[in-house]
Amino acid sequence: MNSQLPTLEPGVTFLDDGDTPAALYRLVGRHLADANGSTYWLDARNAASPDAIRRHADGRVARSVRVARAFTGYQHYELVRSLPAEVTPRTALVVVPNVASLYAEDDVPAFEAEAMFDATLELLAALADALAVPVLVTARERRDRVRDAADRTVTAQRTQAGLRVDGPSFRTDVYWHDWGFQTTIPYWVDLLGAADADAEPAPVEPAAPEV
Amino acid sequence: MAFKIDVREDGVPVRWATDGEGVAATADPEYEPALYAAARNDRTRYLDWLADAVAPDPKVTAVERERRFTALGATERSPVLRLSIDRLGEVRQVGREIRQREHEAHAPGVLSLYDVDLDPQFRYCLDTGRDPTPGRDLRTLSLSLPPAALAADDLTALTVDGDSAGDDAAAVRRGVERALESCDPDVLVLSSGDIVALLADAGVDLGRRPGHRKLAGESTYASYGRVGHSPARYDVPGRVVVDRSNSFLLGHSSMAGLRYFVERAGKPLQEVARDSIGGVLTALEVRHARERDVLAPWQKRQTERWKSLDTLHAADRGGFTFQPDTGGSAGGANGDAGGSGVHEAVHELDFASLYPNIIREYNVSPETICCDCHDGAAVPELGYSVCERDGFLGDVLGPLLDDRAGWKARIAAADERASTDDLEAKADAVKWVLVSCFGYQGYRHAKFGRIETHEAINAFAREIMLTAKERLEAAGWHVVHGIVDSLWVTAAPDREQTPVREVAAAVTDEVGIELEYEGRFDWIAFCPRKRASGAALMRYFGRWADGTAASASERYKLRGIEARQRSTSPFVAAAQRDLLDAFDRGRAPEPVCDRLARHLATLRRGDVPRDDLVVTQRVSKRAGEYRRASRAKAALERAAERGFERNPGQSIEYVVVDDDRSGAERVRLAFEDGTAYDADCYADRLVRACASVLGPLGWDERRIRQYLDGTRDASLSSFGDGR
């Protein structure tokens, strides 16, 4: 099942997870399965559920995860600022779910919240850039800002056939269900070739791109 | 000593001190409040910048460089800028302006500000070292106006110390003025602060000098996931205004409790009266931090430490719960699984003030937990270190623990004829602070809170409860139930028991916190959980054995069931207590249901006085925000129609008159006349209250209704078909 999800490239990836909060855990688990080094999970709004993370990451992988939770915009900003002291080029992944949430609360004056949020996005981008580590963010609020600041956007959707993940270099071809798997047409096209042999190859990316 | 601080329009504080039987006012024009600024990583160039930036500001009268501790755990003083402010009451404004300036010139957070959001009156006492404890008993005058009259601006319903003030506006004015003159009160206890404005409009000044001020408009806020409402606040010269509708401490204690915190926190009476428990705790902490030369941060920037998933998982576990599967257990259980059931001859043991005692005995405090100077894994499960230096939090709570223990001992030893009201009120007031201190550590805005402290307290508590359970079991006792800080045990069959008090004493010695013997129950019944999953609200009731009860006045101990709940109507509460008596007689369901049938019949005959059916409910939303047509929504709509605005966080009292209707006709407000009520609606509540009593025997509402239907005879025919 994991081969049907992308591993993450260095840079900031915005996971547009719409109505599928589970996509975050699946993506993190998938990425870490092939990775070494530790993971920093800068949490907001209780996304860092140990149970949910472990469900999608095996023991070794789960042990590499370090979590710190922010409960106010000020704390979130301070934790973002502390990342450069923690993260190294060997870091497997930085996860920042609900990156905008705490800045949207009314316990921080708007002008300060804006400034801290801007600085947060800049810092994450600079960190990803300087150390060539993947940074995965999700957002409920200010999604356009987050999308613009990210190097790429991956969308996750719950479909009747299961979780579907689309990104610039990835698309889910096989959907897993509790009862087995079901494939999509691009999967067969990729496997057997298009019916029209003269046509251009279908614009299909490999199912599990190398990073 | 100054019991009231007025802040004049020009920002000058005026102290009102007791002077013999009278009072004396002294203005203090020399006083200047101050706030402090420190720079990230102590980079003084930011302080230089700030000194230049505020130089032209007339609100800032002086800028000085000092060195202060900026955190509880700091080992060295940091360079700070002390900004003296011209007017008391303008400190916050200056703080906000500095933030704005910082924002325009620097990255966010290069400056941290301190001592910004203190009550002006509290600040004045702290800065000048003045003790706000009154030098004599204060004279109190109580003014009350029922909510409906307040809404209608009708002063003729005003009472002064319980007596009507007068029948028309002129008589009311004269009545209040006469009372002010003859009593010359130091404290005005008002049913609502709005009475100040209403009387001012009628030409009566409640202060010792003319005029009054509205300090803040009413507002609605969210705190701890609960919606609260704070009404408008007023201030009058020379007298303390206490708004009874907005004083948690007065509502849960008395003036004696308030006076205690005035002394302990050094915060004047008026400000303590309207404080939340969090506010009182913060005041105690700020005062103690000052003694350590630590400034009070405006915005808390301390963050959680990076932790593993294992630690996070362990840290997030709640308090101790032990709910054995009672099927076939040795405790004489007689109910279904999930820890419910009835148990005979049960002893209750409680750790007294477990969480605050852990804070003190185990030195848990924001600056001691996860210290860098001590190795080792002092905190069970989490492996956090704990520093040996004197913890801040223990120092704050220690005097409260000791005082309360002293009062409790005096109450216990008191002669029956001696009044212990003041001692009990003080013990209650302190109890609220003690029970809140643990949760407050995890509160995100707590100035000196820290999440790891909260986690460590919990981890110690679990270990202590497990230790107690093991020792009791080893001594021949069977633990039938345990939750948070209480354990219930019976003698294990075929075992010899070490006397339970002896075991408790041994546990006390081992863990360093007293495991108190609460008493013996002839029987105790634990209710099944309402939901299969999730944290169980603890619901139980039991009958104390003769002579062993902790409180002799109460025959039963009730927790979590309807008769204990504020929202239950008096009729249902009284009926449930009667059902408890029936339960006690045989602990069989049928006689209890027979009693229920009699209460149902009374209800159906229309014989219940309407006052006994009043439901008090705290509303969480405005009428328009309720999605479903609830009774609370109906009550709010009715109140609005009658010009009686209720806001989220406030309570509303109503009687259900026709539950099948929606909107304002569904209910009547408590103060409206009439005798009609919806018998079916209250019958449902009665049956539910009965189900709580019979739940431990495995009877639910459906079973109760079946029984009632089956035994219907001539005398019971007044009970309907039971929906």
Automatic annotation (TrEMBL), chain A:
Superkingdom per UniProt: Archaea
InterPro entries, A to Z: P-loop_NTPase
UniProt name for this protein: DNA recombination and repair protein Rad51-like C-terminal domain-containing protein
Automatic annotation (TrEMBL), chain B:
Ranges of residues in domain DNA-directed DNA polymerase family B multifunctional: 344-694
The protein's Enzyme Commission number: 2.7.7.7
Disordered: annotated span: 320-339
Keywords of the record: DNA-binding, DNA-directed DNA polymerase, Nucleotidyltransferase, Transferase
Pfam (any one): DNA_pol_B
GO biological process terms, semicolon-separated: DNA-templated DNA replication
Reactions that this protein is recorded to catalyse: DNA(n) + a 2'-deoxyribonucleoside 5'-triphosphate = DNA(n+1) + diphosphate
GO molecular function: DNA binding; DNA-directed DNA polymerase activity; nucleotide binding
Bias-annotated ranges (Gly residues): 328-339
Highest taxon of the lineage: Archaea
Protein name per Swiss-Prot or TrEMBL: DNA-directed DNA polymerase
Organism: Haloarcula salina
